[in-house]
C-alpha cells in the first residue's frame, strides 16, 4: 500500500528569544492549531521559517524548554537572518561594511 503524502500534518512551533539565553518554546500545534498559529503570526508580521524536520524535533520539547545546544546555532542563525530582514543590526556592526572595504 502506498503512503498518501497529500495529507501531511501541518505543524508549528513558536519560539521566544530575549537575546540573553537560548530561545524557548512558547507554543506548539498541529493541524488546525498550527494553521491558526501561522495565520496569527502572519497577521502580526512575524517572520515564519518553514523547516519540517526542525519543527518535528522542536515538537518533542515541552513548553518553556530552551532549545538544545545542538540546535541553538541553527536557531541563532535564523534569528539573526530575521533581524537583518527587518534592518536591525548589532551596534558593533555600525559601518562594518566600510571596515571590510578598507581592509581589502
UniProtKB/TrEMBL annotation:
Family assignment from sequence similarity: Belongs to the type III secretion exporter family.
Keywords linked to the UniProt accession: Bacterial flagellum protein export, Protein transport, Transport
Cellular compartments per GO CC: plasma membrane
Role this protein plays: Required for formation of the rod structure in the basal body of the flagellar apparatus. Together with FliI and FliH, may constitute the export apparatus of flagellin.
Gene Ontology BP annotations: protein secretion
The protein, known as: Flagellar biosynthetic protein FlhB
Pfam families: Bac_export_2
Keyword Protein biosynthesis: no
Amino acid at each position: 500500500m502506498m503512503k498518501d503524502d497529500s495529507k501531511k500534518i501541518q505543524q508549528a512551533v513558536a519560539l521566544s528569544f530575549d537575546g540573553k539565553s537560548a530561545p524557548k518554546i512558547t507554543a506548539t500545534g498541529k493541524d488546525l492549531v498550527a494553521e491558526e498559529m501561522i495565520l496569527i503570526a502572519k497577521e502580526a508580521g512575524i517572520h515564519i521559517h518553514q523547516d519540517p524536520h526542525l519543527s518535528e524535533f522542536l515538537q518533542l520539547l515541552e513548553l518553556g524548554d530552551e532549545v538544545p545546544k545542538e540546535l541553538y546555532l541553527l536557531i541563532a542563525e535564523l534569528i539573526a537572518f530575521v533581524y537583518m530582514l527587518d534592518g536591525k543590526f548589532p551596534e558593533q556592526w555600525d559601518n562594518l561594511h566600510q571596515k571590510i572595504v578598507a581592509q581589502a
